Every structure is written in C-alpha cells, then in structure tokens.
C-alpha cells in the first residue's frame, strides 16, 4: 500500500500578543478569523484560526498567542518560511499595500517565481507568491478584493536537521512528487490546488529553538477518520512513532516527528469549522470544547480581550 496526502491542511505557529496577531492577519493580510477557541492542552491560551471565507483545508493558519513570551530561533527541525498564494498579477497590489501600511518586504525569486518576503509583528517569516491554481478567497471584509486576496497556502520551506531524510519522508511516506531541485532547495508537489508545494532547504540552518515567531507544526490532509487510521498504520509501518488520535473538535489529529526533527500532523478534512456556529458567524464567539464549558466564566476573565478591527486603508 502506498499513500499520498492531498497537501497541507494547516500550519500552527506561536506568536505574541493576540490583538497584534488579529490586526495583522485580518487587517493586513485580509484573512478571516474563522475560529476563536482555546489551546486544548493549555486552556489559558487562545487558539486562533485564520483562513478563507469557509476555513477550507489548505488555507488555515492557526496560532497560540503568548503575550510577553520569549522569542524563538529559526533553525533545523522547523517550518522556516510559510508561503501564501495570491492570484496571478496580484503582487504589485501587495507591494503598494505594504508600502502604504509601513510593512518592510524584500523581493526575491525561487524556482523562477517572484516572491515578496516579509515577517509578521512577532517574527514569523512569510512570503507571497502568485499562483494560478486555487479558488479566489471571497472574504473581502478587510477591503481586499477577491482578485488580489490571499487564496491560501502556496506551501512552505522546511528547515531540516537531515534534509535528504526529510525529502525521503515527503516522497516515500507522504506521497509528494519531487518536481524540481537547485543548489539550495528540493521542491515537492502534492495533488491539491492549494497548499501543494513544499521546498526542503538543503543546507543546515543550525539548531532552532521554539518560541514566539516560530512554526510549531505543519499538518497534512487526511480525507476522513478512516483514512487517518490508515495513515497511522502506514506511518508506523515505516518505523516512525505516531501519537494516538487527538480530538481537536474541528478535525482529528495524529502527530509524528519525521527524521529531520520537524513535527508533522495529519488532520482530517471534516468536520470543519461551521459545525458549532454558522458559516456566517464563524469566529465571532469564544467556542469551547465540552470539557471546558464549565470553566467558561473563568476562562473569559483570564483571556486577553480581542476584537476584529479594520486598519486605516
């Protein structure tokens, strides 16, 4: 049996103050706050999810905001750069927007694609790249038109302690196809129209340290619970240790650390984010898993208040 994931489900990072996080990903990047909940393993911390209008797999970036926490250090064993896809011809719009909003960026190139590289307020490394594939993001509440807005993930750059071993896992375990290679990177592609390109950096970046501004893990897509259990058995058959299934309310998750020390998750596409609030109201209320409802009052008092607010356009 050989398996292949469709692509990236979500990426999860650690950041600083939650209001700064909301202001940037909604106000600057124009993503929708699709879910406001808590870290199930650390309920005194938010878990915030941003994505397209529906919160589709391949568009979701999630955050654990720890105000005043120590900064991390980007290095081996991490997702070093998170890449977003914008429609063809949209990069000049984003250049103008970043200049207007005072956001520093650099123009670079990789595998023949022009890239805008920048960081969020807490040091997370991001980039925009034009891609023709993927549906337009119809969430225009921040004033960014759909033909310019972020569609979802273009992909990511993996910083590995053992790049060739990570490349082997991507190809032989996760089922991605090697499509390009140069002196710096090996590129892999999955079948999805979004969140489908992953580059492995071929040279070590030195040991990383988890903290603010770092990606915690990258999650890959499973079709459903049955497919996820197949993945669990399949990964174990390759000699990698996998956690039991974890109920994350909006998907089920299993985790394993690949040979290059990057934390991988496999998450189910269903049930998605609209099962505990409507599609129209997603992200407007603090949603708690059943086991924490009895502590709602205490949690609401301890969590830093956040609001969706528009920046000066």
From TrEMBL:
Keywords: Dioxygenase, Oxidoreductase
UniProt protein name: Ring-cleaving dioxygenase
Keyword Oxidoreductase: yes
Keyword hit for Oxidoreductase: yes
InterPro entries attached to this UniProt entry: Extradiol_RC_dioxygenase, Glyas_Bleomycin-R_OHBP_Dase, Glyas_Fos-R_dOase_dom, VOC_core
A Pfam family that the UniProt record links to this protein: Glyoxalase
TM region positions: none
GO molecular function terms attached to this record: dioxygenase activity
Lineage: Bacteria, Bacillati, Bacillota, Bacilli, Bacillales
Residues in VOC domain copies: 7-131, 152-269
PROSITE patterns membership: VOC (PS51819)
